[in-house]
Amino acid sequence: MSQHGEAEPDELEYQLYVSGEKDDKEVPVDAAVQAFGHYFGFAQEDANAYASLIVGLVNYFETCDRQCAFRAGQPLYDEAARLLVRERSGRLLKAVVAYCRHECAFEPGAPLYDEARQQIVADTSGQLLTEVLKRIAQDETPALVRLGWDTPKALDAFRDLYLYTEKEIWLAAFLSRLPDDPVGVATLPAMHRDAGLPDMRSGALPALIDTTLARLKPTPDGLRWRKVLEGMQVGHLVERGFDAEAVRRYRALPEAMKSDLFKASADWSKEAACRSVDALESNAVALGAALWLEGQAEEARTLWQGVSVTPGFNPLRDAITPEVTDKALFELYLVGDQTAVEPHKDACGNGVFRGGSLEGNGALFALARAAPAVREVVARRLDKAGYVDMAVWLRRPQAPYIDPEAVSFLEPLSDLIAIAPDMARTWKAFAEEAKARDEALLRASNGPGHVKVAGAPAQWAEKPLPEGMSAWPEDKEGPKPPRNLSKWIGSVVRYEASGKEATVVYESAEYDLAGEIPAYGLWVALKRDGRWQTPLYLGLQTHFPYVVTPGSNLPLIDGDRLRLEVQVREIDLDTITFPPVSLDYKREAKGLYLDIPLESLRADADGDGLTDVEERRLGLDPAQGDSDGDGLIDGVDPLPLSAYSAATDPRLSQVARLVLEALAGHEARAIVIRPRPEQPADDILAAIAGGAAPKGFRQTLFVVAEKDIFAGIAGAPFRLIVYSPTDLERLGRGKAPFYPPQIINLFAAPDGSAYFVNWSAGWVGGSLIIRCQKEVCKGETVGGWIT
Fold first, then answer.
1. What Å distances lie between residue 558 and 353, 597, 645, CA to CA?
2. Distance CA 20, CA 26 (A)
3. SS3 sequence, 221-285?
4. pLDDT of 201
5. What is the pLDDT, as a whole number, of residue 673?
């Protein structure tokens, strides 16, 4: 049966399946194969061979799926999950992947590949090639292209596969086999192509299209194909923001071709034309916007004349000729057009997607999929109306930038699929320009940097255990801490006590928000003369690269030095997926300890109450007691990276409080259990609302926001660290996982009467509308999501 939709009667596999049943009863195999052959007019010998191959392929790939699909409920997954409780090195998962790649790869030398190749070459109808490729169309390996490359019906098969899967490898194969004079070859319908695919990002596929255009003959059929391919190229250029080049290329076309460039081709069926209407109209709208920006209003309107008119609010139409008041734009762009009740359909009956995303249902978020020229026209309207935040958002790159270094799936097929060198150079230059442009725009939109990034000297030395001392056994527990310790610290990983003195090493998410990855911060607390001293942060995260052993034959304290036995169990960042079913290690070792001078952990060069180790982790300045320069030293400053300003609009401070309530409310009820003290779940929420400070040691909140809205908060009973995206990138955090909540978007009405906020905390997020009357602001949740 089809993997990309409902089965069609003329599919070989479907007819073989149908022939095997009659009146809900199984038909004998010989009779079923005979009926299958009769339906297609195959000779009996061919029908037997084809049926055998199809059944073999079905069994082959279903067996591979059953054995290799790594998901809950699959025997291999459940067995691996059971074993991974003990075996955490990742070797088991590596073995599974290696087995599946070897046993299930459909390539020369693999089961059935050679048999399929032999029968495909002998099949003059081409049906078998298409059937085999459809069966395994989810795979894009070059071996599949080679399977039918030199068969008589390869062109038809590659065309069918492209229309069936919409994958670029089949378009590339089809174009490479297209004759210079494609007499009778129906042109391809226009389809949206994913600009994030490697061969779109590298420019390889557009270069191949230009290579094809260069060899097409100026015959009627060649010109028919030229129009379709030129439309693809102009659409691609304007989609990626190369407006000037798109306009130049468009204007260089013959007048007759220009007028029909974004219209259905005469040789398309009604189905193909309807399938193409959205892509064609999107390209026409985008090129029209590029012309409009060049001051060519009449030429733009000519292009837009054939575009379907959608009822309700249309941002581009309103940007050209304003239809609503400036004040109304806030609701229309962020909440949505509430007057549009019925979904709009085009002339073919296709539903027209009005827009919306996880961020919101308004017109702004639908424009994320629009071409840069369209977004720029709309951004200019928003700028004039005072919605600067929304205009900035529209101007930032909304799709993956083109990467000239992206690995191309065409490279392994370079002996079959040739790209002209000059075309390759041209499109690689476009790719390099686009990457530089998009990265610059992203940097500009990521907010200013505040953090002090200083090379942190290691507070410890990694050493082998003393000669003759054995490493702590992995299956052996360590000394048990007193039960009451969990009331004020996190998860204890090592405890040692003697008389009135004790030392505890524990994990905490105080500074290290690792999400679902077991990479929490390590701290040490010392009890001397029966009194616990202030805990000290080690500046290390579990698994990056060390794991503390629960016990050791080496005493934990030697004078004023901490001697902490560890194992290296460094998680490979490349293996982190969510949920983290299995994490691989890139380095492992045992029989080691860290020699840490306690004085280096206590050091506070600027005397601000935070240790140098803490300040380096947080991005504060270890040599400057007041990192943000607002007159409060870092140790008592509730926002040590955000300078307090008494001039802050009080409405904005209320907005900040409401946003914190949403973020901290999520944090307090998180389904991911982090090492933390026992405390009421709503302590931080109560503190935000003006109640008592949180009990226990967990008192730090982190937020990532492009715009710092917290400058008016003073006297908060917890520490709030506000990073910009630029800060987060600079900080690095030792490359260990760090997933703080984020304010993704914050849009304000020009008069400050309303705000729209998108926030995210990894696996959950939401949207708020905050409305202010005079100096009183109230928030309303208008959307939410969970993964």
1. 68, 10, 48
2. 6
3. HHHHHHHHHHHHHHHHHHHCCCHHHHHHHHHCCCHHHHHHCCCCCCCCCHHHHHHHHHHHHHHHH
4. 62
5. 39
For residue 103, give both structure tokens.
């046993």
Helix (H, G, I), strand (E, B) or coil at 540: strand
User: In the structure encoding, which two tokens stand for residue 588, read together?
Assistant: 């492992």
Which pLDDT tens digit goes with each residue over 22-63? 777 888 889 988 988 888 888 888 788 878 877 877 776 666
Q: Please give the full DSSP string across 102-140, using - where no structure is assigned.
A: HHH--STTSTTHHHHHHHHHH-TTSHHHHHHHHHTTT--
| Token digits of residue 451 | 């953090």
With a threshold of 0.90, does the pTM exceed it? no
Highest average pLDDT, of 131-140, 190-199, 481-490, 671-680, comes from 481-490
Which residues have CB under 8 Å from 628's CB, separation 6+?
450, 637, 639, 640, 641, 642, 643
Give me 528's structure tokens.
Answer: 């001397």
- The C-alpha atoms of residue 762 and residue 767 are separated, in whole angstroms, by 14
Are the C-beta atoms of residues 779 and 768 closer than 8 Å to each other?
yes
The C-alpha atoms of residue 200 and residue 775 are separated, in whole angstroms, by 50
Task: Round to whole Å and give the CA distance between 499 and 111.
Answer: 70
CA distance 172 to 144: 13
* Helical pair 372-385 and 270-293, crossing angle rounded to 10 deg: 50
Range list of H helices, 573-724:
598-602, 612-618, 650-668, 683-688
In 358-427, which ranges are E strands? none
Tokens coding 290: 């590029």
User: For the segment 102-155, what is each residue's pLDDT rounded down to a tens digit?
Assistant: 556 667 776 677 777 777 777 777 777 777 776 665 555 677 788 788 888 888
Mode of pairing for the β-strands spanning 754-760 and 764-773: antiparallel
Phi, psi of 293 (to 5 degrees): -65, -25
